[in-house]
Specification:
Helix 3 crosses helix 4. The protein is built from seven helices and eleven strands. Strand 6 and strand 7 form a beta hairpin. The strands form three sheets. The chain has a seven-stranded mixed beta sheet, with helices on both faces. It is an alpha/beta fold. The chain has one domain: 3-Layer(aba) Sandwich (Rossmann fold), CATH 3.40.50.880.
Length: about 230
């Protein structure tokens, strides 16, 4: 099964040589599931020709806001709507979670409550899963067809499912602790409040449930779908 990675942002130059760029992180997260990957740098306006060029699509995180005026935003929203209409499965992570919601009629904005950084607990039904977070923007109004499957007191719409068409997560299952630590040292200073960084730093090393989410992503991509 071929998964197209729609890359909407770049890992910091200071971290990528040692830790990889975002597509590398997702390939590592989903290793062992029989996927092969092709990356399209949509942030640089490299788009697939058709929504059926791959069997499923994974939209990465980004330092950009879904509501900002960047050249790739509207074409990406158009692509999402076409894939959704054709029932080509999509997975969105952080920015990907937000841009899918926005493209389908939801609302994304900078959250007045501030930042979520580092190991963060989320309720997924009866399970509490801990995942690394790095975001201030949130989905604040759901599009039609979205069902909340993960949340906490800080982020009400932390994970969404749209029947068999999209699965999205606000947190970053692909981020390892060392990458979050690197983000705190490169992108966090002067942007994320010191007390938020201190709290996140104290929780680094907490076991995270990245593979629980990886299994759910893999199962979502592989789920049988009829002709549409």
């Amino acid at each position: 099964m071929r998964i197209g990675i729609l890359q909407t942002g770049l890992a910091p130059d200071a971290l990528a040589p040692q830790m990889g760029d975002y597509p590398d992180m997702f390939a590592r997260l989903l290793d062992g599931n029989g996927f092969d990957f092709r990356t399209y740098r949509v942030v640089d306006m490299e788009f697939p020709a058709d929504v059926h060029d791959c069997d499923g699509w994974l939209i990465t995180g980004s330092r950009h806001g879904a509501y900002e005026d960047h050249p790739f935003i509207k074409p990406l929203e158009d692509f999402i709507r076409r894939a959704y209409a054709e029932h080509v499965p999509m997975v969105g992570i952080c920015f990907g979670h937000q841009i899918i919601a926005q493209a389908l009629g939801g609302k994304v904005e900078r959250f007045d409550g501030g930042w979520a950084v580092g190991p963060t607990d989320y309720a997924f039904g009866d399970e509490t899963l801990t995942l690394n977070a790095w975001h201030r923007d949130q989905v604040v109004a759901l599009p039609e067809g979205a069902e909340v499957i993960g949340s906490n007191a800080f982020c009400e719409n932390a994970a969404l499912v749209y029947d068999d068409r999209a699965l999205t997560v606000q947190a970053h299952p692909e981020f390892r602790d060392e990458f979050v630590d690197g983000l705190m040292k490169t992108r966090g200073k002067g942007v994320v409040p010191d007390e938020v960084m201190a709290k996140a730093g104290a929780r680094l090393g907490t076991p995270i449930h990245d593979q629980t989410i990886a299994r759910r992503i893999a199962a979502f991509f592989k789920a049988p779908r009829g002709e549409n």
